[in-house]
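Our collaborator T.R. sent over the components below with a one-line note: 'Predict the complex.' Nothing else. No constraints on interfaces, no templates requested, no preferences about which chain binds where. So this is a plain run: every listed entity goes in together, and whatever single assembly comes back becomes the starting point for the next discussion.
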Amino acid sequence: MTPTAGAPAGDLRLVELTKDFGSAVAVDCLSLTIPAGSFFALLGPSGCGKTTTLRMVAGLEEPTSGRIYLGDDDVTDRKAYKRPVNTVFQNYALFPHLNVFDNIAFGLRRRGVKDVKAQVDRMLDVVELQGFGVRRPSQLSGGQQQRIALARALINTPQVLLLDEPLGALDLKLRRQMQLELKRIQTDVGLTFVHVTHDQEEAMTMADTIAVMNNGKIEQLGSPVDLYENPSTVFVANFLGQSNLVAAQIVGTQGADLLLDVQGRKLTMPAARNCATGDSVYVGVRPEKVRLVPAGASVDLPGHNVLDGVVIDASYTGVTTQYVVRMAWGQDLMVIAANVGNEVRLTAGANAHLVWDASDTFGLEATGDIAEGIETIDEAGS
Amino acid sequence: MATTLSRPAARAASAAPARRPRRQSWLRRHVVQIFAAVALLYMFLPVAYVIAFSFNNPSDRYNSTWNSFTFSNWTDVCGPAGVCDSLKLSLEIGALATLGATVLGTLIAFALARRRFGGRATTNLLIFLPMATPEVVMGSSLLTLFVNLQVPLGFWTIVIAHITFDISFVVVTVKARLQGLDSRLEQAAMDLYANEWQTFRRITFPLVFPGILGAALLAFSLSFDDFIITNFNSGQTVTFPMFVWGASLRSIPPQVNVVGSIMFVASLGLALVGQVFYRRRRA
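Returned assembly:
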């Protein structure tokens, strides 16, 4: 059966999908439903299994076990060229010996479409590269090549379009521009996009739903807002944005709040925001939710948490000032203050209170490394 | 005194030593070209000699002293007995050996570059051996083999011998090209509805073709040129290199120079066409 273009797309379902390479498990019993027409991101550090997952959907990698469904069709055992799925590769993989027109027409011609000109021209319109048909890929800039790779996949109106770090090779400015462009095209054509990336900002900008992956498993799945505001694991809290996490003990309840003890200080947290099951928790707050108040000022606000420390670094970055504040027990916490104009600017050495609304506090299972998911410079650069 | 120099004078003083290296620098700037010219002269002087003496009307049997200019060698290439017979034979053997070695070598290269199988590393190593083996050893070994198998020596034993040593060169050349080929291009083709055969025909083969063509040209020139291995396995058959060698013992007809000149011009032409084609594709 040849894939039919423009067929009403069904959901993409991965059921207990596993892939090992020898002894290393790349994807570990992953189950996931990606609704038709959504812009879905698989986000994770390099080596987390996101690209392997994508390649299994494309048919370029064979799963060790598990099934892949497109709508009601089980496509697990179908060859790559028999799946109504197309991929935009990380390095674009444009055919160097064919010109732009023939690159874009490649998929249509393989499916026996005779008159491809109108469709190719329309696709060149969509990616705004009219008149580039006669050029060779080597004559195009990175951003142009990226758009040709996108056009080459989109022209087949696949049920699912897979994007494997498609913007990784572009510089920052072009990347921002292409993010908006991709989002616009996805909205226009209404296809399911599955986007693999290690760039959390890219995932948050474009995707409706993000699955954060780590060690071959999905850590958490949700909308960008949901993931950022309510991280449910240490990895997600650290990988998606930054978090201040400190070890705490639950010592009691007070109405809908939990009472916490952090190195002898009392904090409260809404019970509904606690993901931990035991009394030991990692309690967290996002750095931009925290206000930095000079020592001595009154901080006795109801419904707020307060911790005291010494500012050891203040870096002014224009929009915000980022403070590193050392707690009495030696841990460094981060505060990001918006530079709105009337705030008191603290310098290194100043004593300060960290104040935040208790409802911005979240609790995580206190197993594993409290720093898990913090990207090292090495990883961020790759 | 120096401290009281006015500005223009100081400038002139500093300009003077700066001008001298500029005068010296012609040699310096052209040193690469000069060495290149000397090297090319060294390489092409014998070729120029061959071409020049293809127009000689020799006074002795060896065509080694210039006598007078003539076109008659060029108009009568096949005049002396054996020149054209041996040339035709060498071209035929070259064509067959090239075809055989290119087809087999390309298949081996694909297997080595694209498939994982037991004995792959050993094959990779062994494929280099015929290139490293001295021709005398290879020629005598093949002769022993043919004699033992009672294969009559002649045209076909030469072809088999040539394929034997050509294969290694084809494998190495094509494999290098294949390894430089990004396998994601083939995956992209499969992703775009091309089945295995279409992927090979539309993507892999066109991209590897320059390597295969280069390998074929190399195989042909090695075959056309071979003397030592051929000499062991030819029986009564006389290829062009053997004819020249045999003739040189008695007398070398100037037509040999004509054939040599034609070969040189033809390969130069091929190289030029290749360059032009390559540039046009890039542009």
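Summary for T.R.: Chain B has a mean pLDDT of 86.
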